[in-house]
């Protein structure tokens, strides 16, 4: 049963994002930023964790989960280091994901022949 809830939740999030892309003039980059910010705000309000427990991996749609991870990192760093933690917490919490994206993107550029749009 939990797989079905996870599948439906992730699918609904993706469907809502696709509708937003199709029905508005928002570009994909702005929608991605909107999703990251939404994840951070949901984490701040304490809504993301219960939602994640209910929806399982469906709530871990990468950008919502990334925003929540950034928020958790900032929260922990501020608790440890005070005000300066606000600037370093997000980087510390998300460094592995960002590094992996950069490394695998770079390796993919060698494996495939990218075509630039004119």
Automatic annotation (TrEMBL):
InterPro entries the UniProt entry points to: SpoVA
Superkingdom per UniProt: Bacteria
UniProt keyword terms in alphabetical order: Membrane, Transmembrane, Transmembrane helix
The keyword Transmembrane belongs to this UniProt entry's keyword annotation: yes
Transmembrane segments: 6-21, 33-51, 93-112
Pfam families linked to this entry: SpoVAC_SpoVAEB
Coiled coil stretches, renumbered: none
Name of the protein in question: SpoVA/SpoVAEb family sporulation membrane protein
Source organism (scientific name): Candidatus Mediterraneibacter stercoravium
